[in-house]
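worker-3 :: picked DUF6480 family protein
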Amino acid sequence: MTYVNPDPDPRVSTGLEPGGGVPPGETPPAESSMPEAGPQDLPINPAKGWAKGPMALILAVVLIFAAGLLGYALALIY
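worker-3 :: tokens ->
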């Protein structure tokens, strides 16, 4: 199997200046000129950030863990 370079040969590519530069007007259009580019706008945007339920659950687990460590430390002292 022979290797084929997917890049065009700069010596025969149209629109290239000597040294490989591209003159103005030879570049592709910007994204703003493509009307269908980007994500669709939904009529109802989904919530961003943390919901109350998962955040409360994480906070409860952290508080129980901290209380356990505090209880363990107090048990070692007394």
